[in-house]
Write a structure and sequence with these properties.
two-stranded parallel sheet, 14 strands, Hect, E3 ligase catalytic domain fold, Rossmann fold
Length: 447
């Protein structure tokens, strides 16, 4: 029996579907052996080739390399097989090294290396760099609209894109003039369409969508999170039992200990803390500015460390695989600080002219939720520990200040959870908010 030809598959891969099917067929007794034109077509990895060869011979099959005619029944034949496999692996390493060097040079020259160009740019046929297209003015407008809280679906309608396409567009640093290809970065590869602050402002908290049923939005919609799994808790669809609950079933698996809490109790607790923070809003504005400056300094330090590392390894003439891991770690750290800065720069998208506590009483539930999203990062709720068990709310709830860096943007698709610490922080943690005023802010708001 002849299997389908395996085209456009690298010999360096160990998970090639047709090859795996052939080996499994030999082990099952359906085939007598494996025939390849060249030994390198079987594999360009010494370890994988020897393991595959042993599996085939252990099942009573044989491997025939037509060009080499290797007889593995003799010591010389086995040595020849190993040497030829090592040469094939070396050739693959050289090819990868040459390819990575070409990518590095092209990135340094600002050459766009992908087939599709991002919206707002076109590829210059002479320089092969990105240049602004006729759609370029639409890009800054989209970033400003998102920073102002406009829903993704509305921006998508204007740009004739899908919501996921707009989400990817807003995360793309190509609009800062930056070109990223693997571990290589050119921060000034082409003209920028937006500046760093505009990009960061668009990365902030997503406003809550209106409920499809027409009911009023819950005060903590999108903010209340189960501390066991990190996912957002549902405000509940029942008109009788108004409870924030963990869904339990998520794309990454089951929640180990789903949390649930009465909406009225949690809303009252968080509202007191939030109004206490709003009462000090003007006094803490300068402190928030200092925090933003601190994060900016940390970001510049992380970016400078990445640039110095890449410059050093290039000067040392190291191979790509020798520095790729270090470069990736430093880039991930810069991205983490950049996302923390984006969270800290999110504006409070609700009117707070005059006394913010008294203004609170004039807002509808949706605008209160929007205001809280600019003030809080999340509200962590721990399970009570048993059905009907009463636990003081201070012992199972932590209100986390905005910009704490605990919650990151969720990419979906079963990727790691958007919350970094699946536990309740201590009450004295700097990121945890609490009521600090002698006067009850709820009473002040009602008066």
């Amino acid at each position: 029996m002849v299997l389908d030809p395996e085209l456009d598959e690298s010999g360096g891969r160990a998970d090639r579907p047709i090859l795996s099917q052939a080996v499994e067929g030999i082990e099952a007794g359906r085939y007598r052996g494996l025939v390849v034109a060249y030994l390198s077509r079987a594999s360009r990895s010494v370890r994988h080739l020897l393991e595959m060869w042993e599996r085939i011979e252990a099942a009573g099959g044989e491997v025939v390399a037509v060009a080499e005619s290797i007889d593995t029944s003799t010591p010389t034949g086995r040595l020849t097989r190993t040497v030829l496999a090592a040469i094939a692996e070396h050739e693959l390493d050289l090819h990868r090294e040459r390819f990575e060097e070409l990518r590095r040079r092209a990135t340094a020259q600002g050459i766009w290396q992908r087939r599709q160009t991002p919206l707002g740019y076109r590829r210059d046929p002479v320089t092969r760099k990105l240049v602004p297209s006729a759609d370029a003015p639409r890009i800054p407008r989209a970033f400003r609209q998102r920073a102002a809280g406009r829903p993704l679906v509305r921006i998508a309608e204007e740009l004739a894109l899908t919501s996921s396409g707009v989400r990817a567009l807003l995360r793309n640093r190509v609009y800062l003039g930056e070109l990223r290809v693997g571990v290589h970065v050119n921060p000034r590869a082409h003209p920028a369409l937006i500046d760093e602050d505009e990009w960061l402002a668009a990365q902030g908290t997503t406003p809550a969508r209106p409920p499809r049923s027409g009911r009023q939005i819950a005060l903590l919609a999108g903010l209340a999170r189960c501390s066991s799994c990190g996912h957002v808790m549902s405000p509940g669809a029942s008109t009788v039992h108004h409870v924030y609950t963990c869904h339990r079933h998520h794309s990454a698996g089951l929640c180990p200990a789903p949390a649930a809490i009465t909406r009225r109790h949690l809303d009252w607790h968080v509202e007191r803390i939030a109004l206490g923070e709003l009462a000090q809003f003007e006094a803490t504005a300068s402190e928030r500015g200092r925090e933003v400056d601190r994060i900016r300094t940390e970001l510049k330090k992380a970016e400078a460390e990445l640039a110095a590392y890449l410059e050093g390894v290039n000067a040392a003439g190291l191979r790509p695989h020798q520095f790729a891991k270090g470069a990736r770690l430093r880039r991930d750290e810069a991205d983490r600080v950049r996302e923390q800065l984006a969270q800290a720069l999110v504006p409070v998208r609700a009117p707070v002219d005059g006394d913010p506590v008294r203004v609170w009483g004039t807002l509808d539930p949706r605008r209160r939720n929007t205001l809280l999203r600019g003030l809080l990062e999340c509200v962590l709720v721990a399970p009570a520990g048993g059905r009907g068990k009463r636990v003081p709310i201070d012992d199972r709830v932590r209100v986390i200040a905005h910009g704490a860096g605990m919650v990151t943007s969720y990419r979906g698709g079963g990727v790691p959870l958007p919350i970094k610490r699946l536990r309740l922080p201590d009450r004295d943690d700097p990121s945890v908010l609490g009521v600090q005023l002698a006067e009850d802010p709820l009473e002040r708001a009602r008066s």
